[in-house]
Design goal:
Helix content: 25-40%
CATH superfamily of the largest domain: F0F1 ATP synthase delta/epsilon subunit, N-terminal
Radius of gyration: 16 Å
Bound molecules: adenosine-5'-triphosphate
Order of helices and strands: EEEEEEEEEEHH
Number of strands: 10
Number of helices: 2
CATH topology of the largest domain: ATP Synthase, domain 1
Number of domains: 2
CATH class of the largest domain: Mainly Beta
Strand order of the largest sheet: 2-1-9-8-5
Length: about 130
């Protein structure tokens, strides 16, 4: 069976390089399951988990937005930040989540930018969900 070559890259360098039988990612238009020979596409991603299915199991990566390019057997994801589940510091994500929730509350009183707090909250929750795999 043919496989996908998957790479997840950030400005700090590669986060994941490997093969997969399937990649599941949430694009702004909805969830996509990519198999070998998927039609070529470029899609913006949501802050969400990218699931990399392999014969041996499934690896989860927390991806903070960015873009996914699919071309033949190649799946390339470029994002601002991305972390493999084993690299996520759960305490740090829990602290970031608490801070974001406080900021969202403050945003109701116009003290901080609500959108920034919502994005921070999504990133923290995504890291926590990825770590809980
Ligand atoms: P924090 O408020 O905890 O710094 P953040 O969302 O502001 O979180 P980012 O700016 O998205 O952090 O990321 C900065 C760097 O830290 C990136 O390299 C990112 O991969 C890493 N990072 C952020 N949060 C975590 C985490 N909980 N565990 C491991 N790495 C993390």
């Amino acid at each position: 069976m043919s496989e996908l070559n998957v790479s997840i890259v950030t400005p700090d360098g590669p986060v994941f390089e490997g093969t997969a039988t399937m990649v599941i990612a949430r694009t702004k238009a909805g969830e996509l399951g990519i198999l070998p020979n998927h039609v070529p596409l470029v899609a913006p991603l949501k802050i969400d988990i990218v699931r990399i299915k392999q014969e041996s199991g499934e690896e989860w990566v927390a991806v903070n937005g960015g873009f996914m390019e699919v071309n033949g057997e190649e799946v390339n994801i470029l994002a601002d930040t991305a972390e493999r589940e084993q690299d996520i510091d759960l305490d740090r994500a829990e602290r970031a989540k608490a801070r974001a929730e406080e900021n969202l509350q403050a945003a109701k009183d116009q003290k901080v930018d609500e959108l920034m707090a919502q994005i921070a909250l999504q990133k923290a929750i995504n890291r926590i969900h990825t770590k809980e795999h």
